[in-house]
Structures are given as C-alpha cells and as structure tokens.
Amino acid sequence: MVHWTAEEKQLISSIWSKVNVEECGAEALARLLIVYPWTQRFFDNFGNLSSPTAIIGNPKVRAHGKKVLTSFGEAIKNLDNIKTTYTKLSELHCEKLHVDPENFRLLGDILVIVMSAHFTKDFTPACQATWQKLVGVVAHALAYKYH
Amino acid sequence: MVLSAQDKTNVKGIFAKIGGQAEEYGAEALERMFSAYPTTKTYFPHFDVSHGSAQVKAHGKKVAAALVEAVNHIDDIAGALSKLSDLHAQKLRVDPVNFKLLGHCFLVAVASHNAAALTPEVHASLDKFLCAVGNVLTAKYR
C-alpha cells in the first residue's frame, strides 16, 4: 500500500479539483499520440490520425481521453487502494488490449506536462513531485495484473 | 530518430522565446528533477540541493548553455557536444536513464512558463531534441 503524506494528498486534491477532465484528458491523449506516434498502434479504429491537427480534432481521441482521465479520478478517490481499484482494468489492458505498460508511464509524463502548462507557476516542484509519484503509482497498478 | 527541418525550426523557435532565461530554466529543471526523482541527487552529494541553492543555479546555467550550444549547432549536435560527451563517458558516467528524467523536467519547466508556445508539435520537436542531446552525451559510454 502506498503511503501519502497529508501534504501530498492536499497537493493532489487541490490540483484535481480545478482540472477539466474532458479537456485535460483529450489534450493528454492527443499529445501522447503526437509526441510518441508509435502509440497510435492501439487506435487503428480511431479514423484520421494523420497529423497533429487531425489528432487534436479527432472526436474519438477526445472521447477516449476523457474516459482515461475519468478513470484516473477513481485512483484519486481511492488513494489508499489504487491497486485494488485498478484490478479489472489491469487485467483488461493485459488480456484484451495488449498494451505494453511502458505506455502508462509515457501517458503519465505527458499528463504532468499538460498540468504544468495549465497550472503554470502553481505547478511547483513539490507539486510535480507528488504528481509524478501519483502517475507512477497508477502506472504500476495498471501493470500489476499483467502475466 | 532524426530531427526534421520542422523539428529544428520548432526547437530554435522555442529557444528564441526562452531567450536569456535559459539559465533559470536549467536551474528549475534541475530543482524539479531532484524533487521528483530523488535518486538523481546521488550524482550531486556535494551539492546543496535546497530551493534557491547557488550551486544548483550555477549548474543550471551550465546545462542551459550546453542546450543552447546544441540548438545553435542543431545540424551537428554530436560535434557541438563532443567534449561534453567525452566528459560524461569518462568521468561523470551518469546512468543514461537520468538524461530522460532531466529532459522531462526541462519540458515541465518550459510548459509552466511558456504554455502557449508549447504546442503539441513544438512539444514533440523539443522532446526529440532533448532525446538527441541525451543520446549524444551517452554515445561514447561503451
């Protein structure tokens, strides 16, 4: 079980309360597909991913980004129980989706950059450190049931 | 991984926007890295890594200068950073994984000060550039 200090919990919730899950999720996923184009391999059925403009405007990317970040919110609601929260999702990503867990780390880092751009000076080094820990824990939990 | 003409334009563009503040970005990237990835501090046992540290500022300046040098010689980063590459291979021997960490933190610093300029395309180019720099610095490791 991961230990979160009171300060870390505060840094997580104060940032999260101001996040627009739909916008932020869409942006994070779009940037993942743009900055690391090989990640597009999982989204053959998403239609037009041929350029950054196409990716940003792609409605399936937006919808999926929102889905992913909404799920992230579940982790934040269950900080003391993230592994259990993600058991089924982990199995899904392994057995059905066949996603290399490295991709969770890539998306986590992209999310941190999106947060930094959004919160600017409020995204202090201490804030970033907490969020790096969180995305790391989420990535680990999503990879946990892999076999 | 090759930097396209557009990548080079994007990187030069964002560094032009950063301008004289590159040194501060260098220091901030280091501070973020030490904070988020404590293992990176093992390379600086002799440093005061607390916020505002003069040593971190000075080192940030060095890091920034090297990045600017690479940008100014973006067609031959290996040539421009050859001596630094030797230094890292023979003396410093920083594990290659750490260059990704510092590169990431540099991106976070840029994002926090220049969100509008860090479009997805520029983000991609800058990430590629920082990877290329890391690759050059570890190229002679073995």
From TrEMBL, chain A:
Gene name, Swiss-Prot/TrEMBL: Hbrh
Function: Involved in oxygen transport from the lung to the various peripheral tissues.
Organism: Todus mexicanus
InterPro entries named among the record's database cross-references: Globin, Globin-like_sf, Globin/Proto, Hemoglobin_b, Hemoglobin_oxygen_transport
Family: Belongs to the globin family.
Superkingdom of this protein's organism: Eukaryota
CDD domains attached to this UniProt entry: Hb-beta-like (cd08925)
Pfam families assigned to the protein according to its UniProt record, in alphabetical order: Globin (PF00042)
Domain Globin: residue ranges: 3-147
Name of protein: Hemoglobin subunit beta
GO cellular component, one term: hemoglobin complex
Keywords: Heme, Iron, Metal-binding, Oxygen transport, Transport
UniProt lineage: Eukaryota, Metazoa, Chordata, Craniata, Vertebrata
Gene3D superfamilies found in the cross-reference section: Globins
Subunit description: Heterotetramer of two alpha chains and two beta chains.
A Gene Ontology biological process term: hydrogen peroxide catabolic process
One of the record's GO molecular function terms: oxygen carrier activity
UniProt keyword Signal, yes or no: no
PROSITE patterns assigned to the protein according to its UniProt record, in alphabetical order: GLOBIN
TrEMBL record, chain B:
Lineage: superkingdom: Eukaryota
Annotated keywords: Heme, Iron, Metal-binding, Oxygen transport, Transport
Single GO biological process annotation from the record: hydrogen peroxide catabolic process
Domain Globin: 2-142
Pfam families, A to Z: Globin (PF00042)
PROSITE patterns in the record: GLOBIN
CDD domains hit by this protein: Hb-alpha-like
GO molecular function, one term: iron ion binding
Keyword Oxidoreductase belongs to the record: no
InterPro entries for this protein: Globin (IPR000971), Globin-like_sf (IPR009050), Globin/Proto (IPR012292), Hemoglobin_a-typ (IPR002338), Hemoglobin_oxygen_transport (IPR050056), Hemoglobin_pi (IPR002339)
GO annotations of cellular component type: blood microparticle; haptoglobin-hemoglobin complex; hemoglobin complex
PANTHER family in the record: HEMOGLOBIN FAMILY MEMBER, HEMOGLOBIN SUBUNIT ALPHA
Family: Belongs to the globin family.
Role this protein plays: Involved in oxygen transport from the lung to the various peripheral tissues.
Name recorded for this polypeptide: HBA protein
Provenance organism: Todus mexicanus (Puerto Rican tody)
Phylogenetic classification of the source organism: Eukaryota, Metazoa, Chordata, Craniata, Vertebrata
Gene name in the database record: Hbaa
